[in-house]
Amino acid sequence: MKNLFTALFALLLPVLASAQFSISGKVNDSYGNALQGATIRIENSTIGTTSDTDGNFNLNNLRPGKYSLKVSFIGFETEQKNVSLSANIRLNIALTEMLFTEEQVVITGVNASYKTPVTFTNLHKADIAKNNSGRGFEYLLEQTPSAVVSSNAGAGVGYTGIRIRGSDGTRINLTVNGIPINDAESQGSFSVNLPDLASSINSIQVQRGVGTSTNGAGAFGASINIQTNTRQDTAYTELNNSAGSYGTVKNTVNMGTGLLGGHFSFDGRLSRTVSDGYIERASSNLRSFFLSGAYYGKNDQLRLNVFSGHEKTYQAWNGVLEETVTAGNPRYNEVGYIAKTGGFYDNQTDNYTQNHYQLLYDRKLSDKLTFNGALHYTRGYGYYEEYKNDAKFSNYGLTPVVIGGVAITNSDLVRQLWLSNHFYGTTYNFTYKPNQRVKFILGGAYNEYKGDHYDKIMWTQQSTNIPPGYEYARDFAKKTDFNVFGRSEVTLGGFLLYGDLQYRHINYSFLGFDRNLNNVQQQALLDFFNPKVGATYSFGNSNVYASFAVGNHEPNRNDFTNSTPASRPKSENLKDFEAGYRFDSRNFSATVNGFYMLYKNQLVLTGSLNDVGAAIRTNIDDSYRAGVEVSTRVRIAGQLTWLANATVSANKVKNFNQYLYNYDTDTYDLTRYTKSDIAYSPAFIAGSTISYKPIKNTEIAFISKYVSRQYLDNTSTKSRSLAAYFVNDVRLAYNFKFAGVKNIGLGLLINNVFSEKYQSDGATYPDIESGVVKNYNYWFPQAPINFLGTLNVRF
Length: 795
Prior knowledge:
Membrane topology: Multi-pass membrane protein
Family: Belongs to the TonB-dependent receptor family.
Number of strands: 48
Organism: Mucilaginibacter calamicampi
CATH topology of the largest domain: Maltoporin, Chain A
Protein name: TonB-dependent receptor
Helix content: under 10%
Largest sheet: 22 strands, antiparallel, barrel
Subcellular location: Cell outer membrane
Distance between the termini: 65 Å
CATH superfamily of the largest domain: TonB-dependent receptor, beta-barrel domain
Number of helices: 4
CATH class of the largest domain: Mainly Beta
Number of domains: 3
């Protein structure tokens, strides 16, 4: 019998020796986030691979035996796994984040991790590249929960904007490498000033609600934290080009040296984007560059970023009159109309340049303590030029001119409204991590803004005895913003306990006269305390979390200038309750989040714009937003994936008073609303991306977006609203390579494939005429079916 077994084993030995098995698995961070691009290598061999977008990997055709796997990823400790292989094995590998990261310089204090009890969405470089075809930055975020994106010009180039949970850009806090980008006075962020920034972005985190403590104005709807490109060890050159409908063309060149001498790297980008726009005379001419140099040492690292953007856009910020759209002319742009000739002024343009300088420094002070700091400076300057019909001299401080015995008091004229500003400061974070269970961050910032607003008359039709370029108004503004915060995370078993306390002090003053020669000298001293607490419980592939946060937000410049010191707008207060559940596995992941945002003195949009397209707001005593956000990822089959999200919400104003001017009585009539919808806050938003990869390196994606009815003011009046819309896009992509070329990418984005007629934004100016409410609604129509083709080549 013994001899028989020996003979059988001898016969089977060649079969066993030729048997082949696989090692597969998933790479996560310690919080359960999938890590794309992690390197998995078998020691003492040439066998290796990298993890895909979901963190999964496969090593196939391995013979039985003992192997040592090394798993590495930038910013994480390398993990080693010893495997005895006699059958197929699947591993779950969790990497531990380094306290000090040698590969990148980034302010770490603003981002949330998988276990932080904050509602967020992460977008990685691969996600960004798929949608970076030439449209504005906000379109990268269009498929994130609760987001509504719009374009003034209708085709995605030029002035673009985003609302998250119904909140506009003035209460969405935007940072780049932890440095605030929002304008200190208007509090908005304008991606048109930094065209093609997407080509220099490594990752984006969108936090909804108050979120974590950040630098800059408090987040009332969301915060968007951008990290620009990080270290690449090999030299590269990349040419990215797009062309499509309405004369849209984008050209981008990216270059990098890779790591030089083990310590230095240099990267650069040069871009230009032009478009005629869907709306008439809504052209854009955009240019930008991004330069970055870094030094990597054993215990410290230094990076200098210099980037700039210049935009020249024909003004399209007023929208199109509703009656004009419904009459079949949705592209009509009345801005720049010259009444005397019936033509249009050809230089009714906005012109602005913005230069950014960032010096980022990281230092490992010990094995438990690191420092991240930055110095920054932003220089902005520019103007918009406009034609004014039959302007009154008295509005410009001019005295009437007597010609032939007749006093001339009015004239057509061309004016320029200038802005020249400086924004500079410092940010810092100390991170103390004595062990894997405790983490504490102490951070803060001091920023200072100085801005000159001055206005000129460039030409008058009638003689006024003033020279060209006559300055008729000037206003200087200064704002200092100081904040300090402490954040702690403590892990106890499956629980993570979270606390975050922030103090913020603001000193804002401005003097002189506005463009209408009104004295607007005011000063505001504000102190805010913003506490945040929460907890997360993790089990298996899931966690549940709950948090409570307080946010305070100051009025912006227009809120002040549209008032007097006696009727000064109040600061806003927000109490934000969030609770949710997260689940993540290879083939399915989901997040369900509930929110209740209770406002005191919220500054809500009235629906009207001032004479330069800026929204007019008013304080409301009590209002709230309450809803549920759901986002999922389903791998239906190996090549078919479905990403979907939906938000159902109630957004209500209590006891809103609307005053309408009555032309019949020359008075204002009051209408009271006990409970109504907050303007620009749809009750239902949904997004869907169905992605199919029929063959390797090929993708076909069908992308959908639904937005329910949006009211243009706070009265829930259907005649002053934007109808619901459902828009579908198709995205095609194919990548290949050959000798000497690392990658060639071909893409085609077909927007609005079914030519849905819709408006994503608007404004309203109701009044009373002949005893009847008359609505003057302006809409921003979006383009019917249009396309952008892309060609990307990387050497």
